[in-house]
């Protein structure tokens, strides 16, 4: 009835790309210039928790509260795009079955909370939009698969489309102008490579300098290296890292991951004006990983950096003393320059 309050709660994980998404060919639909591939972290330390509710009794407008602060939903085109797609899917269900409550007509109330710093280059928008889409899809009891929902989440934040699935997830660029084939798909479940671990080193929990959309547009418009990466470098790397994942070949996985992080940051430096996401502490982490790999005599660790100074280091649990132990000893949470560290595993996303 109109007085009832309908509600759904969900959590969504962070994903950290090993082949980076950087550059949009369509800024409205969030269509990428290159495919990307990420690893979904368990929700042990980083996650978004979102509750979506609706009722005929709610005040007329949709609302969004993020970490205790009301957001101006009307100025967020991306949030509006996600909500209107989800509502259209619900409306289609109601049109087909008149016994269903008319939830599509009710105002929505969305309350979302991160257990980690927002917009610090810790993929908060990925977990945030994935949780929003999953929560509203659950509230509306939509039959769409995670792959189909990834099309909606992508419009919130590109990387969010990869947080609807667990394990190793590819986001294919797609070819169509309407973006209907620009979707995320699972390459391998977490159980395929259970030894994989991630260490998130928080260099700074401050808000990042240049938001990713703005940074991407500067890079797309001014860097010649960017076009080279998107057209000639990433396609081979996507194929090679998928093979490394299939074969659980850590040295190959690690080298491709590190090289792609470096190439992505090189395109930022090649932008005009140049964009710097990594800082001196980030570079110390890069040197440390190369030192560990050299001293051990095999590749046991891989670093990657998103649009911020924080490092994510991948390693296999048999090497956790070597890698996490050494990193913690040298750059650990109590060392100046570091705000903290999270240890994490790769996980599946469990369907509600
Ligand atoms: O999803 P966005 O618009 O916040 O962009 C994310 C970009 C990177 O994190 C740097 C790379 C990636 O693939 O996640």
TrEMBL record:
It catalyses: (R)-5-diphosphomevalonate + ATP = isopentenyl diphosphate + ADP + phosphate + CO2. The keyword Disulfide bond does not apply. Residues 12-184 form the Diphosphomevalonate decarboxylase-like N-terminal domain. NCBIfam families: mevDPdecarb. It comes from the Eukaryota. Belongs to the diphosphomevalonate decarboxylase family. The keyword Lipid biosynthesis applies. It comes from Penicillium arizonense. GO terms for molecular function: ATP binding; diphosphomevalonate decarboxylase activity. Residues 198-352 form the Mvd1 C-terminal domain. This is Diphosphomevalonate decarboxylase. It is an enzyme of class 4 (lyase). One of its GO terms (cellular component) is cytosol.
């Amino acid at each position: 009835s109109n007085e009832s309050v309908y509600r759904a709660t969900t959590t969504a994980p962070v994903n950290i790309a090993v082949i980076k998404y950087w550059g949009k060919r369509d800024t409205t639909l969030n269509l990428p210039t290159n495919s990307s591939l990420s690893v979904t972290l368990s929700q042990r330390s980083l996650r978004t928790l979102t509750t979506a509710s609706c009722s005929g009794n709610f005040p007329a407008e949709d609302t969004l509260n993020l970490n205790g602060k009301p957001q101006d939903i009307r100025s967020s085109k991306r949030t509006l795009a996600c909500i209107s797609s989800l509502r259209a899917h619900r409306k289609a269900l109601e049109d087909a079955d008149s016994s269903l409550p008319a939830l599509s007509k009710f105002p929505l109330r969305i309350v979302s909370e991160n257990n980690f710093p927002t917009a610090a280059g810790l993929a908060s928008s990925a977990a945030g939009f994935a949780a929003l889409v999953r929560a509203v899809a659950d509230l509306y009891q939509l039959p769409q698969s995670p792959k189909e929902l990834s099309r909606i989440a992508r419009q919130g934040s590109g990387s969010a489309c990869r947080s609807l699935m667990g394990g190793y997830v590819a986001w294919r660029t797609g070819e169509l102008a309407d973006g209907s084939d620009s979707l995320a798909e699972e390459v391998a479940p977490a159980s395929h490579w259970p030894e994989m671990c991630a260490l998130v080193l928080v260099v700074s929990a401050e808000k990042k300098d240049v938001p990713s959309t703005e940074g991407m547009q500067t890079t797309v418009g001014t860097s010649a290296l960017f076009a080279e990466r998107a057209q000639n470098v990433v396609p081979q790397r996507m194929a090679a890292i998928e093979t490394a994942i299939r074969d659980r070949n850590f040295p190959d996985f690690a080298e491709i991951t590190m090289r792609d992080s470096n190439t992505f940051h090189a395109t930022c430096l090649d932008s005009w004006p140049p964009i710097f996401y990594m800082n001196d502490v980030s570079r110390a982490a890069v040197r440390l990983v190369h030192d560990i790999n050299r001293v051990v005599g095999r590749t046991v660790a891989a670093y990657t950096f998103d649009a911020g100074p924080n490092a994510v280091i991948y390693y296999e649990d048999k090497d956790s003393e070597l890698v996490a132990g050494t990193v913690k000893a040298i750059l650990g949470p109590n060392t100046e320059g570091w705000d903290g560290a999270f240890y994490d595993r790769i996980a599946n996303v469990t369907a509600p």
